[in-house]
Amino acid sequence: MKENIKELERKKAAAKLGGGEERIKKQHAKGKLTARERLEILLDEGSFQELDMFVEHRAVDFDMDKQKIPGDGVVTGYGKINGKLVYVFSQDFTVFGGSLSETHAEKICKIMDHAVRNGAPLIGLNDSGGARIQEGVVSLGGYAEVFKRNVLSSGVIPQISLVMGPCAGGAVYSPSMTDFIFMVEDSSYMFVTGPDVVKTVTHEEVTAEELGGASTHSEKSGVADLTFENDRDALLITREFMSYLPQSNQEYPETIECNDSIDREESALDTLVPQDPSKPYDIKEVIHKVADDGDFFELQPKYAQNIVTGFIRLNGSSIGVVANQPLVLAGCLDINSSIKAARFVRFCDAFNIPILTLVDVPGFMPGTSQEYGGIIKHGAKLLFAYAEATVPKVTLITRKAYGGAYDVMSSKHIGGDINFAWPSAEIAVMGAKGAVEIIFRQDIGDEKKIEKRTQEYTEKFANPFIAAGRGYIDDVIMPNNSRKKLIESFEMLKNKQQENPWRKHDNIPL
Ligand code: HXC
Domain residues for 385? Predict the structure, then answer.
């Protein structure tokens, strides 16, 4: 028995050492933590339970039978974050560059199957050179097994990807099918083909960082939801992020104790909207002022900034926020902002997270680049997402709600449960000036007449009362009282039950 115990200890020590001291040093020199160090930060202390520590690859070609490292380049298992179960895999770059072999894939799949069966989130820490080159198609098969599970888990359990090193080729498609991608600045990158292939095929010269680094994906492509300065920040903030999510689609996010007054008045909101409708203001001020303790967990803060998405808590409950941002492109809806918000709305709806929509939108962005890019189809995504969402939806129009964008932004007509407006709201087909120039075209050139008509149109439509008179707006509320009103509405909607007609799945315009 003594010998057996020694053998166990020896094998465990070998697994824990991964690719060995030298490679660990190299990993640290790049500013990266090892697979196991990362899990220690991510999970509650002492909670990690490892599975498959002794799994080894089965390859024999290229002398692979002489190079076996227990665990085969990925650490898998389960543990807790803030006391709640999560399943994890953490690729070990020190073992064959974290590359994915047949057995490496089997380990990840085992964890994914557990996560779905037991209803708990899956968090993947990606740091890999891609398919294990020595294994060929067996490795590709392994990837496909992971992809299939990503798809079947989508909308069932939250899936989070932390990209903390290379992620290239077809390997990018596993993170891309998860709910959120977080990247680490300067040490992670994602691309379908690397700089060398790009150069050969398109003659473009580009660095890995420019092609697929954290800033590229958080500012240009929208692939990444958040980026972090280093591994540690990424892991610690992921812990915080998880507190907004439920364990699965069968549960609600945990309500935490709220020590912020639920009827806190915010007089600053009464003067936030400028008199001049062409002047911007920061919608994030509204979000911070209504949220518990002013906390807002923003997602994609540098991408499509004309719409703001993220999580707050109201009286301790997790709420998804979508808000037009008048500071950027006057808060217009364009292709990128529609896709950004649509995906967020669908995540919230899939995981029982109520949605607060703050509206100040002058319409869809005009122009050839938008039309050629398919704004019709992409704008429809947001409309579709709101209309099919059955979670509680509360809408607050702070200023403009013009045209089709009024309908799209969780209007009463597409299923807003409670729709509020501030007295400053303007709900109309378009702004007064544009409207007058169309319906009184014959008066153009006569300044006085145009001014009078504009005044007339403004008085008639640039207010919330026509919509409120029809019940499209449930109440016109004082800005300072918004927090209380929103909390009361979400409390009232807490037990909302709604089912859409049965179908295999919908056909959202993709
Ligand atoms: C086997 C690999 C590997 C791989 C790296 N290694 N990638 N082993 N299969 N895919 C090994 C290296 O041989 C090396 O071993 C160790 O990992 C570290 O690699 P380095 O090159 O020294 O590290 P670095 O300089 O940081 O470069 C990292 C890298 C580079 C950019 C990822 O290793 C690289 O380009 N790897 C190949 C990437 C690739 O082409 N993958 C296949 C893509 S196609 P030693 O023993 O020296 O430490 C793909 C298809 C997926 O993935 C399809 C899904 C459908």
Answer: 267-425+464-492
